[in-house]
Amino acid sequence: MPLTPEQQAEIDALRDAPQQTLRATVPGMEKHLYVAHQVLDHGLVRVIDYMGDDAAICQAARVSYGRGTKSVQNDEGLIRYLMRHWHSTPFEMCEVKFHVKLPVFVARQWIRHRTANVNEYSARYSILDREFYIPAPEHLAAQSSQNNQGRGEILQGEEAQRVLRLLQEDAMRSYDHYEDMLSQDGQQGLARELARMNLPANVYTQWYWKVDLHNLLHFLRLRADSHAQYEIRAYADAMCQIVADWVPAAFAAFRDYRMDAVSLSAQAVAVLKRRLAGEVVTKDDSGMGAREWREFEEIWGN
């Protein structure tokens, strides 16, 4: 289960006791406060706190007091201008703090994004739960033949069952040994900080992750991309829905100018110009490497 009964009781108590405030609030974000959005089999994402809104971005850009806007249209236009021209500082005026429950191997990818404040559940002080990420059958895939860090064909039949069985058995066996090694019930055993090293990378951990909007959008641009690993992309997709409700104008601009946009190298621009002029351009005379040419053709055709 993503939440323990104690965590759910805490959430229910917080949502049943709303507080008045003079700071800016966003109805779309208020509905997400404390609510656990399930991700993967045992994971979750929930908003603990947030600061700022679309108007705060515009206020910072104009260096003014109050709402700093003349109309919603003006604010949206300004936000789109800022996003289009890579003006990042105004987006840093908004912040959000998430509680995330995720497999350790996903956390190790996630922590590569270093522009955030993180406090993780400590297995030196506490005992980790017997919870492991086991992929659904549709996410069991062989190694890609073209991409060393990607997946290929989905495993089928007996091979899929064999792999699932190994994952489940290894996870349970490792946790059994983890429990056996712990110093508890009168047994001397190992310290928690040592016993944890026997656990596999699919065991679940938890952390609080606080980040400003600019760096959050950078995270989402990379991790909500179709080429990102599925497991971290599942978290990014859930967070995209939350951010869209929090700062709808900023997220719409982000989608247009970052997520759904195409970045072109100087060589790609030159090839497009030559094509528009009626010239037939091949990989050999494009100035691109094989992988870049393949990616170019995926978007622009051959």
Automatic annotation (TrEMBL):
Pathway: Pyrimidine metabolism; dTTP biosynthesis. Binds 4 FAD per tetramer. Each FAD binding site is formed by three monomers. Pfam families: Thy1. InterPro entries: Thymidylate_synthase_ThyX, Thymidylate_synthase_ThyX_sf. One of its GO terms (molecular function) is flavin adenine dinucleotide binding. The active site is at R223 (involved in ionization of n3 of dump, leading to its activation). CDD domains: ThyX. Its cofactor is FAD. Its EC number is 2.1.1.148. It catalyses: dUMP + (6R)-5,10-methylene-5,6,7,8-tetrahydrofolate + NADPH + H(+) = dTMP + (6S)-5,6,7,8-tetrahydrofolate + NADP(+). PROSITE patterns: THYX. DUMP binds at Q109, W110, I111, R112, E120, Y121, S122, A123, R124, R196, R223. It comes from the Bacteria. SUPFAM superfamilies: Thymidylate synthase-complementing protein Thy1. FAD binds at T89, R112, H113, R114, E120, D212, L213, H214, H218. One of its GO terms (biological process) is methylation. Keywords: FAD, Flavoprotein, Methyltransferase, NADP, Nucleotide biosynthesis, Transferase. NCBIfam families: thyX. Homotetramer. Belongs to the thymidylate synthase ThyX family. Catalyzes the reductive methylation of 2'-deoxyuridine-5'-monophosphate (dUMP) to 2'-deoxythymidine-5'-monophosphate (dTMP) while utilizing 5,10-methylenetetrahydrofolate (mTHF) as the methyl donor, and NADPH and FADH(2) as the reductant. PANTHER family: FLAVIN-DEPENDENT THYMIDYLATE SYNTHASE. This is Flavin-dependent thymidylate synthase. It comes from Paracoccus homiensis. The gene is thyX.
